[in-house]
Amino acid sequence: MSETATKPRRLSRKERQAETRARLLDAAEAVILRRGFERASVEEITAEAGFTRGAFYSNFDSKEQLFFDLLADRAYAEYTRLLDRTPKDMSPREQLRWGAETLVERYSRAEREDGYWLTRLWLECISLAAREERFRKLAEGFWKGNRETIADRFRREHERRGVAPPIEPRHLASAIIALDIGLFLQHLVDPEAVPLEIYPPLYDVVFGDLVEPRPADGDG
C-alpha cells in the first residue's frame, strides 16, 4: 500500500473546529460530573480536553454558554433523535404512545445509571435564565427545534385528514413539551405519587384525539 493511500486526510478548518468543540463538550461533561456546575472552571475543562483557554473562547463566549450548549447537545439532540426514530408504519396515535414509552425508558435508565445529572444541569441552567436576562436567549434554544419538529407533525397530520388544527400547532407542541417537563419534575420529587408509567396513558388521554380522533360510536 502506497504512502499516499495510508496518509490520513487532513481535516478542514471547519472540521477541526467541530472536533475541538466536541472535545470541550465531552470535557465539560466529565468535569461537571466530578465537580458540579458551580465549581467547574474553564481552566479545568480546557485541561481535561487538552486545550488552552484560547481554544475555549474560540468556541464559546462563556462557561455558561458551554453549559447551555452541552445541555442542548446531550438532552435535546437526543429528544430530536427520538422523534426521528419514530416508526413510520405506526398510526399517529400509536406513534404518540411509542414516544411516551420511549421517554419512560430513557428516564428510567437515567435514574438507574447516572442519577439524573443532565436534569441537575438543566435545572441550574433554567435558574440562570430566570435570574439573568442575558441567559434567556441561550435557554431559548432548548425547546425551539423540538417544538418546530412536533408542530410540523401536527400540521402535516391535520392537513392529511383535511381538518384545521384546534389551535396553532406550535402551541400544541408547547403543550406536549410542558406535559413531559411537568410530569418529570413531579416524578423527580415524588416518584411514588407520580410514577413514570403514567406517561403513555396520559399522553393518549390529553393528546390522542388531537393526533388521531377515535371514530364516534356508530361511525362506519
Tell me what you see in this structure.
The chain folds into two domains: 51 residues, Homeodomain-like (Arc Repressor Mutant, subunit A, Orthogonal Bundle); 150 residues, Orthogonal Bundle (Tetracycline Repressor, domain 2), CATH 1.10.357. 74% of the residues lie in helices and 0% in strands. The protein is built from ten helices and no strands. With 220 residues, it is mainly alpha-helical. The chain is globular, with a radius of gyration of 21 Å.
What structural class do the secondary elements suggest? Answer: mainly alpha
- The CATH class of the largest domain: Mainly Alpha
Question: What's the CATH topology name of the largest domain?
Answer: Tetracycline Repressor, domain 2
| Rg, Cα atoms, Å | 21 Å
Order of helices and strands: HHHHHHHHHH
CATH architecture of the largest domain: Orthogonal Bundle
